[in-house]
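INTERNAL AUDIT FORM
Audit reference: QA-55
Scope: verify that the stored structure record matches its stored sequence.
Auditor: D.O.
Record contents follow.
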Amino acid sequence: MGVMPMPHITMVKKRFADGNFCRKCEEVDTRLKHANLTDRIDRVVVADEADPSSEGMRLALHHNVERAPFFIVRDEQGQEQVYTVYFQFVKEVLQQRTTAQAENQELAQQIDFL
C-alpha cells in the first residue's frame, strides 16, 4: 500500500478589533507548536473582527462556522471538510492521540465568531 497523500490544511484564527487574537486561537497555536505539528498547517488565515470582508471572515461565512479557530482540510480531489474542534482535527487528520476529557474541555472553551 502506498503513502497517503497529505491534505491541504488551512487554519482560520480570529483577531479581535483591538488587534489581539482570541485566547483559544493562541492556545491552539501553542498546542500545535508543542506537538511539533505546525509544519502540517499549510496556511493560516485571519478572520479579522474589524474587517468583515477579511478572508477568514469570508471563509467562516462560506462554511457556516461560528467558532474560532477552525481548520479547513482539502483532499486531493478538492473536497473540503471543516473541523471546529482541535482535538477532533488532530485525531482524524493529523492522526495524533487525544483524550475525551481534552476534547470536551476544548468544546467548553470555544470562542464564537458572532
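Auditor finding: record pair retrieved intact. The first helix runs from residue 23 to 34.
Action required: none
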